[in-house]
Amino acid sequence: MWIYILVGLVCLLAGLAGGFFIARRYMMSYLKNNPPINEQMLQMMMAQMGQKPSQKKINQMMSAMNKQTEKETGKKKKKIT
């Protein structure tokens, strides 16, 4: 009787852990492919702050944001060479 409860509890915990990691991986890949801020949104935000953004400045900010996201994801995945 106790063995069934123990097996059920272990399966439940394994399912929760597996589901968490699968959902986390899915969201990371989704946000990498569909970033929450694009150039148009950045341009609108700068215009609302009273700045006249040039294309060069927008490109610099986008590259800085991309480097930051790569840096955050790069900490977890180190390449062995």
UniProtKB/TrEMBL annotation:
Pfam families: UPF0154. The chain crosses the membrane at residues 6-23. It is found in: Membrane. GO terms for cellular component: membrane. Keywords: Membrane, Transmembrane, Transmembrane helix. It is a single-pass membrane protein. InterPro entries: UPF0154 (IPR005359). Belongs to the UPF0154 family. This is UPF0154 protein. The lineage of its organism: Bacteria, Bacillati, Bacillota, Bacilli, Bacillales.
